[in-house]
């Protein structure tokens, strides 16, 4: 006999779930786009700023610093005048590329279905408002 929800011990926890911790790292929309900008190798800050549509200098700086802190991005300062800064994925960061590419592929293949489901739901529940 299945246990009731009152007696069953919780087995899903935000604080203990490795998956939720990983989602915390990559779930920001800018994080994914910045990682995609580095998927082909080393990229300079200005080039990344141009490639990532809509990101501000402040947000790009915050995002790459967070990724650097997490060990996913390496930052290299080139002693030129003015100094140039290049970024690249670390070996750890590169391990994220395949699962992120799969999510991107899923999105391209199924997001239209999500939009249709939302529209259908909204129409069915419009009278509830």
Automatic annotation (TrEMBL):
Organism superkingdom: Bacteria
PROSITE patterns assigned to the protein according to its UniProt record, in alphabetical order: HTH_HXLR (PS51118)
Matching Pfam families: HxlR
Keyword list, A-Z: DNA-binding, Transcription, Transcription regulation
InterPro entries in the cross-refs: HTH_HxlR, WH-like_DNA-bd_sf, WH_DNA-bd_sf
GO molecular function, one term: DNA binding
HTH hxlR-type domain: residues covered: 17-115
Name this protein carries in UniProt: Transcriptional regulator
């Amino acid at each position: 006999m299945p246990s009731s929800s009152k007696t069953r011990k919780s087995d899903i926890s935000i604080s203990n779930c490795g998956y939720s911790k990983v989602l915390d790292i990559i779930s920001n929309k800018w994080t994914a786009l910045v990682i995609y900008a580095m998927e082909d190798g080393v990229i300079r800050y200005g080039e990344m700023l141009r490639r990532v549509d809509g990101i501000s200098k402040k947000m790009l700086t915050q995002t790459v610093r967070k990724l650097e802190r997490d060990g996913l991005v390496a930052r290299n300062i080139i002693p030129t005048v003015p100094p140039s800064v290049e970024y690249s994925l670390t070996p750890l960061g590169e391990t994220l590329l395949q699962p992120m590419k799969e999510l991107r592929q899923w999105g391209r293949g199924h997001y239209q279905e999500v939009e249709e489901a939302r529209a259908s739901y909204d129409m069915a529940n419009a009278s509830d408002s």
